[in-house]
Design brief:
Helix content is about 40%, strand content about 20%. The protein has about 90 residues and is α+β, with helices and mostly antiparallel strands. The protein has a single domain, classed as 3-Layer(aba) Sandwich (Glutaredoxin). Strands 2-1-3-4 form a four-stranded mixed beta sheet, sandwiched between helices. Helix 1 packs parallel to helix 3. The longest helix has 12 residues. It starts with 6 loop residues before the first strand and ends with a helix.
Amino acid sequence: MTTTASVRMYCTAVCPYCVRAEALLGQRGVASIEKLRVDLDPQLRDEMIARTGRRSVPQIFIGEHHVGGYDDLAALDRAGKLMPLLNPNP
């Protein structure tokens, strides 16, 4: 089953946590992630810091909800709270 919420992820090309986040989201049915490459566009890094207050990647948004980084995403999944975010209207 594919998910209904949009997913955006601030990331870089060589970030192992970005790869792990993408893999976890894929396992949960996310078919498409809008990747915002902060290593290619310094303005995107500035935007990410302004929106999240964080400097590390990944920074993940599901819809307009800021999830945080990979550890935050995995914790949401373990708590059973990730799928309701990904499918707000089942």
